Each structure stands twice: as structure tokens, then as C-alpha cells.
Amino acid sequence: MEPKTAVVRGQLGLSPKRAAQLVRFDHAVHRLAAGESPAAVAADSGYVDQSHLHHEVKAFAGVTPAAAANAPWLAVDEVAWSRPHCANG
Question: Which residues contact 27 (CB under 8 A, 6 or more apart)?
Fold first, then answer.
């Protein structure tokens, strides 16, 4: 049986760590585009602090979080990124 890392790399072409970073980045940058503050996004998305969010956005997108949030290539899908609703209200 292949190790899980080899399976993930074979399926995605990325290591599990890199794939998780991309998922976290995608989630964070969409929240920024929805108007949430960088500090709140960093805290809720698993970044150690806001500077780590800034570093990762800069590494993946080549721009600051503010620029990424306003970038034309980032469209917020209201259905996919809607806020969860409470069952009772």
C-alpha cells in the first residue's frame, strides 16, 4: 500500500501540506473579499497571526491581502460563501 503522501501527490500533484495551504489560502482570501477584517480572517482560518496570513497571500497571489481581496480575478460566489444559518432562526 502506498503512503498517503504519495497517493495525495499522485492525485493532486501536490504534497498534502501544500494542498492544505492552498485550501486555507482560498478560504481566507474569499473571506477577505467578503469584507472581513484580516485579523479576524487570520484568527479564524488557522494562521498564527495576521503577518502569517499576509506572508501566505503574498506568496500565492503576489499581492497583499487587501489587493487580493479587491482583485478582479477573485469573484465571491454568494451561494458558496454564504454565512451559515442557525437552525432555529
Answer: 45
- Distance between alpha carbon 68 and the CA centroid of its chain, in Å? 11
Contacts of 29 (CB under 8 A, 6+ apart): 57, 61, 65, 68, 69, 74
Q: At what angle do helices 16-33 and 4-12 cross, to 10 degrees?
A: 50
Q: Which of 67, 5, 57 is nearest to 27 (CA)?
A: 57
Q: What is the pTM of this model?
A: 0.71
Read off the C-alpha cell for 77.
Answer: 460566489
Q: Which residues contact residue 56 at a Cβ distance below 8 angstroms, ignoring those fewer than 6 apart?
A: 21, 24, 25, 28, 47
Neighbour count for residue 42 (Cβ, 10 Å): 24
pLDDT at 58: 94
- The residue count of the chain comes to 89
Backbone angles phi, psi at 21, to 5 degrees: -60, -40
